[in-house]
Automatic annotation (TrEMBL):
Residues 327-517 form the B30.2/SPRY domain. It comes from the Eukaryota. Keywords: Immunity, Innate immunity, Ligase, Metal-binding, Zinc, Zinc-finger. Residues 12-54 form the RING-type domain. This is E3 ubiquitin/ISG15 ligase TRIM25. The keyword Electron transport does not apply. The keyword Zinc-finger applies. Pfam families: SPRY, zf-B_box, zf-RING_UBOX. The gene is LOC100491764. It comes from Xenopus tropicalis.
Length: 517
């Protein structure tokens, strides 16, 4: 046991290992050269001091190696010690050096194997420890007695002699067992908290695994829906492409047919003219003066009639870019609606706020603002072209340049009108769309045919029935406003050509008795 205590003295109090290149400070305490240098570098104080007794030293203190202590450490650590042997030999197993030691009795300072551990006294006075525990650390350095008490003032372990004779005589002390009980309670609280946290972690881990499984399944399902959705969108987009290309192809075929018919007619006329030329030349070469005189008038009249019947290229229209553009815009409009429908069917649609034409039959009074439109009521009174009450709606967005296209669903409305106007239509009393010099429209009375109206002129517009929708095209710079019928094929209904002087607004009107959609 004394050898074990000696070996404990040969250990550095900083690294708790045997001295490596030991140095001794002026206060008498020894440390590893590397440990004390590292400790001083980490100290907050600018003046170095001893880690054990706190004695301060000058900054330029020279550390000298303690070679004797170093040699002693080297000699003692180069051979087995009693402490090392005792870890493998039971104190009661005489002649059996290979018996494994399981516990150490702190009171008896005996090493116990499994056999003698059972028979050893297990009263509270005998405290068993693991064999890796050092008995030297459990004894007082001054009195070499067991550390059974704890000084509450200095927070250190002491022996009974320290209380009676030592520096802790008037300090408050308590048994180490009392402190250990309190510490056990504290440790139990910590264990309880950690156990609760462990259960929570386990629960969260289970929830995370379920979430991962659910998310993976949902991702697979959503991927399939997205693939299906975009496949359907590509199909719809292909239909848009086919419709526009089909319109271009149709116009090209019609123009090619017109050119072929023109060429055929020109060849026929050319053949007739060639015959006329041959007849006139034959008459010129006739040697009979009387024959020339008799046939001259007839040949000249026939030739003059042929000259007046020459066909030119004025009947060839070429490619109608506006009609192509209207087909494109109409197809894209339907494409947008189909995309929204596809999104809804696949659960990938969110409502996008937009302004729309409200039920204007519910508006009473004048100059009612609703979103992008201003609605007002109009009572034409005794005007012959309209003898019933109308509601007109004027778009608040002005169009002063560029090209614009929009569509209006007519469905089964009995009386309707749509077109463009200057904003003067809002301020002028009893100004009906199309029946003044500053508005252009397409309209249908309660019972009658469709007309185009501007400045009280109302040419009839033939239209297929039923009418599902009307497309409106505006080219401000060209001064063109065109109306198209929307059905399986798009057909131009009427075009106004003029020079616009002011910004234009979209205008709509319906009769009060119409049921709004």
């Amino acid at each position: 046991m004394e050898l074990a205590a000696l070996m404990q003295e040969l250990k550095c109090s900083i690294c708790q290992d045997f001295f490596r290149t030991p140095v001794t400070l002026p206060c008498g305490h020894s440390f590893c050269h590397e440990c004390i240098q590292l400790t001083w570098r980490r100290q907050e104080s600018s003046t170095p001091f001893c880690p054990e007794c706190r004695e301060t030293f000058p900054m330029n203190l020279k550390l000298n190696n303690n070679s004797k202590m170093g040699n002693m450490v080297e000699r003692l650590t180069s051979q087995p010690t009693q402490t090392e042997v005792s870890k493998d030999i039971c104190s009661y197993c005489v002649g059996k050096p290979n018996t494994d030691v399981r516990k150490i009795c702190r009171v008896c300072e005996a090493f116990l194997c499994d056999i003698h551990l059972k028979s050893h006294c297990k009263t509270p006075d005998h405290v068993l420890m693991d064999p890796i525990t050092s008995l030297h650390r459990r004894k007082c350095n001054v009195h070499q007695k067991s550390l059974e008490y704890s000084c509450l003032v200095d927070c250190t372990y002491i022996c009974p002699s320290c209380i009676i004779f030592g520096e802790h005589r008037q300090h408050a002390v308590t048994l180490v067992t009392n402190i250990s009980e309190q510490q056990r309670d504290d440790l139990k609280c910590v264990v309880d908290q950690l156990t609760l946290m462990e259960k929570k972690m386990q629960k969260i881990s289970q929830q995370a695994r379920r979430h991962r499984k659910y998310t993976k399944a949902k991702s697979v399902s959503r991927n399939n829906k997205v693939k299906k959705m975009f496949s359907e969108i590509r199909t719809q987009l292909k239909m848009v492409e086919l419709q526009v290309i089909g319109e271009i192809t149709r116009q090209n075929k019609e123009d090619a047919d017109r050119v072929s018919n023109l060429i055929k007619k020109l060849n026929q006329r050319k053949s007739v003219i060639s015959q006329k030329i041959a007849g006139i030349e034959g008459l010129r070469n006739n040697s009979d003066p009387m024959a020339i005189q008799e046939n001259k008038s007839r040949e000249l009249n026939s030739a003059t009639a042929s000259l007046c019947d020459i066909t030119d290229l004025q009947g060839l229209k070429g490619l109608d870019d506006v009609l192509v553009m209207v087909n494109l815009q109409s197809a894209l409009h339907r494409f947008q609606n189909e995309v929204t429908k596809i999104q809804q069917e696949n659960g990938l649609w969110g409502h996008v706020a937009s302004h729309r034409l409200m039920d204007i039959s519910k508006f009473a009074g004048k100059s009612i603002s609703e979103g992008l439109f201003n609605a007002f009521r109009l009572d034409p009174g005794e005007r012959q072209h309209q003898s019933f009450r109308l509601h007109q709606v004027v778009g608040s967005n002005a169009m002063s340049s560029g090209r614009h296209y929009w569509e209006v669903e007519i469905d089964d409305l009995q009386c309707w009108g749509l077109g463009v106007s200057y904003d003067r239509i809002i301020t002028d009393d009893e100004s009906l769309l199309g029946f003044n010099s500053y508005s252009w429209c397409l309209y249908k009375p309660m019972s009658g045919d469709v007309h185009a109206a501007h400045n009280c002129e109302e040419p009839l517009v033939p239209m297929d029935s039923p009418v599902a929708g009307i497309g409106v095209y505006l080219d401000y710079e060209e001064g063109r406003i065109s109306f198209f019928q929307l059905s399986s094929s798009i057909r131009l209904l009427h075009t106004f050509s003029t020079t616009f002087q002011n910004p234009l607004h979209a205008v709509y009107y319906v009769a009060v008795d119409n049921e709004q959609k």
